[in-house]
Here is the input.
Amino acid sequence: MTAISKISEAIKMNLPVNPVEQAHRDKMEQQKTKLLAYKSLVEMTFDQFTSLIYMRACEIMLERGIDKPFVFDKNNTPVVQQLYLYFTNNPKCIYNLNAGIIMGGKVGCGKSLLMLSFIDLMNKYSRYKTKIIHAKELMNLIKSEGITGLSSRPLFIDELGREESTVKDFGSIVKPVTDLFSIRYEKGGRTYATTNFKYDTLETYYGEFIISRMQEMMNYVVLPGESRRVNNGIR
Here is the structure.
């Protein structure tokens, strides 16, 4: 019989509950409540969700100098549907609702645009604010805030696998990104990312030890399709 089962039986029988067990139970309930803080604070329909994704995606494209509408199609719509279920904590979602997301796919398929729009929506409608960083800037962030400072805060890494894998620290070669994922696993830091690589390729960067933790920390979601980027060609 588990500790929680024992407490439940004790309550039913009006027996005194062990204070240590009660404190353990209270802590577990607090952790479960914390997990819900990553989800939407408001009721949201799928149409409302897609409208918010669409508007933010179009805005990001305009910031990049691209004046064209964001398109929902057979490749990204199924993923958007699951992101909606994930954010609204719907048990019908095929993802692990309490893990982060790493979105993989071909170059230019739209994974960064979709995830950036999704993270922006989460930042506005959930209790947690997720830090957005490109992989190329990750090393500077680690240097400025330290691994400990980034151990548990929600983090989105765009283009994971393209950062510097090693740096010199007082003459020694260190792997700060590997260390970062290791401590985030221990602290339960919610992590989101995009990547052009599969786990077997990422394993060559981080090693089996870290990849096994990434697989538990994040849902690996594949965004199918070819590049959506405008090709202006040669004139």
